[in-house]
Design a protein that fits this description.
Length: 166
């Protein structure tokens, strides 16, 4: 039998490659439905099953020099993992990897933008015999007030349900 990932035609992203999460200090309505994935190229989606859900919130806050908050944001990621198919033994895939803003408050006369961008292509983070699909997503937050500040998180969702943050 050959390489399971080669049999599947490789791992591809069937979702978006970039989307706005916050634009001009306001959460965008389309962010929650924007997603990326790491699924087999040559296998119809309806032949994948067994999905489980992973979700978590985190905070991005910037405080001013006098203890006042310039930005208070709650972000959330969500993805489905453990997708399997009979056509690729021992492999697990990830889909619907999304990041959006649950709430944001930005100081008067300041601005904030947050976006998500897929970094590279989906890949096999496992082995040849036990493929684990993975997709890296850069989430970049920028604050434009009296000082321009930014923060970037590299979130990688894996088919085994783990999320690495770099």
């Amino acid at each position: 039998m050959g390489d399971p990932i080669s049999i599947a035609g490789g791992i591809v992203n069937l979702g978006k490659t970039a989307w706005d999460i916050v634009k001009d200090g306001k959460a965008t309505s389309g962010a929650q439905t924007s997603f990326c994935s790491a699924v087999p190229a040559n296998i119809p989606f309806n032949e994948l099953s067994g999905w489980k859900n992973q979700s978590k919130e985190w905070e991005w806050n910037i405080s001013g020099g006098f203890g006042n908050d310039l930005v208070e944001a709650t972000l959330k990621y969500n993805f489905q993992y453990a997708g399997i198919t009979d056509k690729v033994k021992n492999a697990v895939f990830v889909t619907n990897f999304s990041v959006w803003c649950v709430k944001i408050e930005v100081a008067f006369l300041a601005g904030a933008n947050i976006n998500a961008t897929v970094k590279g292509d989906p890949y096999n983070a496992g082995s040849k015999d036990k493929p684990i699909a993975a997709i890296p997503l850069l989430v970049t937050a920028a604050f434009n007030g009296s000082n321009a500040l930014s923060r970037t998180w590299l979130l990688t969702a894996h088919g085994d349900g783990s999320l690495s943050v770099g």
